[in-house]
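Self-study notes.
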Amino acid sequence: MTKTLHVYRSNGSWAVKREGRRPETFGTRREAVQVAVRDGKKAKAAQVVVHGSDGRILEHRTYGMPIIQEPPKKGLVTSRRIAAAVGKVVLDRLHADPLPDRAGTPAK
């Protein structure tokens, strides 16, 4: 079972929260992170999540677990590349294979 350790700000100190246990507090974030990393390395599978003072995730580390790749982000460059590729395919098809004459209509 994966063990998750959260490091976060709590009442003027830094806490390390383990699943199913009360948080352990430290004077500095550095001390809290060191203890969380030490405990994470001891476990067979663990992850350490470090939160900033505002609660947002600053850092995420895993130990004994496969690394999960972040999905590619959609951006303006990617959209432009796709549009250019589709445009090229359409133009190539139009130039290579003209529309056949319809039956019963004179060709121009």
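Second protein, same conventions, sequence then structure:
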Amino acid sequence: MEPLPADERLMRERRLRKKGDIDRVFRRGRSGSDELLRVHLFKGQGPDSRLGISCPRKVGSSVARNRWKRLIREAFRLNRPVLGPGIDLVVVPLKPPGSLKRQDVERSLLGILDRMRRRR
């Protein structure tokens, strides 16, 4: 498999990696959820949208948690232009992944964000 071009990858600066950044989104942001995901949203300061993932042990083993993270990162990466600039997201999966596909996670993420925008 050929590597992705640099502008399509989920680069380090597009991730929330510091505990303080993630805590700020949890504390000051808004949230929405469905049966798969809970999404916390905060209007960030930078030009790029950034993603953080908080994957609790209740969703399964390390294999299951890593699967969730891969699915969420890919759904975010593919829909970054739709999300718009300057938002920080922290996504929390709510149940074991089972036989989920990326499209299911993508549908859930975009649906939650759409509902959050309409509520605003």
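Instructor comment on the second fold: Helices lie at 19-28, 62-78, 80-83, 102-119.
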